[in-house]
């Protein structure tokens, strides 16, 4: 009889019997207070568009194709950018076109790169050497072989 009583007590404990009260830990509680998170009023961080007329662009020819810097400068002028001039890069073996920017002019450079179909990974801050070639321009485009016509 003692063994039977022990089995009943253990079964009651294991199976959850022994109380008429509901198991509060297993049920959600309703305190009557509903917490509503604040409404998200932010939008995706989209910087305002760059006005091409506010961006001066200098174009360097990094290829052996004569006149390519002038062609690209004209393309950018047609799109509304201000030409700061054209010239030759220190080398004529540039493979990939790059867009450089003066301090604080990254958005303008990104817009120019988009206009020319240049990858965003090829948009970089100008160093002192590139800046010296650019005659004070905001953005410097160095045309490479990838944009030259055969």
Structural features, described:
The chain has 4 helices and 5 strands; from the N terminus they run αβαββαβαβ. The protein has helices at about 1-15, 70-80, 105-115, 130-135; strands at about 55-60, 80-90, 100, 125, 140-145. A 5-stranded mixed β-sheet has the order 2-1-5-3-4. The longest helix has 14 residues, at about 1-15. The chain is elongated, with a radius of gyration of 34 Å. Mean pLDDT is about 80; it is low at about 5-10 and about 40-45.
Mean pLDDT: 81
* Poorly predicted runs of 5 or more residues: 3-11, 41-45
**Alpha plus pi helix count:** 4
DSSP strand count: 5
Q: Please tell me how large the radius of gyration is.
A: 34 Å
Shape: elongated
Multimeric status of the protein: single chain
What is the H/E order? HEHEEHEHE
Percent in strands: 15-25%
Structural class: alpha/beta
Query: What share of the residues lie within helices?
Result: 25-40%
Give the biggest beta sheet.
5 strands, mixed
């Amino acid at each position: 009889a003692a063994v039977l009583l022990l089995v009943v007590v253990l079964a009651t404990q294991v199976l959850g019997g022994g109380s008429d009260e509901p198991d509060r830990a297993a049920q959600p509680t309703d305190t009557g207070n509903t917490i509503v998170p604040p409404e998200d009023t932010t939008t995706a961080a989209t910087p305002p568009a760059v006005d091409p007329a506010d961006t001066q662009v200098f174009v360097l020819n990094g290829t052996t194709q004569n006149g390519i810097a002038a062609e690209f400068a004209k393309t950018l002028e047609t799109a509304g950018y201000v030409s700061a001039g054209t010239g030759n890069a220190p080398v004529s073996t540039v493979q990939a076109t790059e867009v450089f920017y003066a301090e604080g002019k990254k958005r303008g450079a990104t817009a120019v790169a988009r206009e020319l179909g240049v990858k965003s990974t090829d948009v970089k801050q100008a160093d002192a050497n590139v800046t010296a070639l650019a005659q004070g321009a905001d953005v410097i485009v160095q045309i490479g072989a990838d944009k030259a016509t055969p």
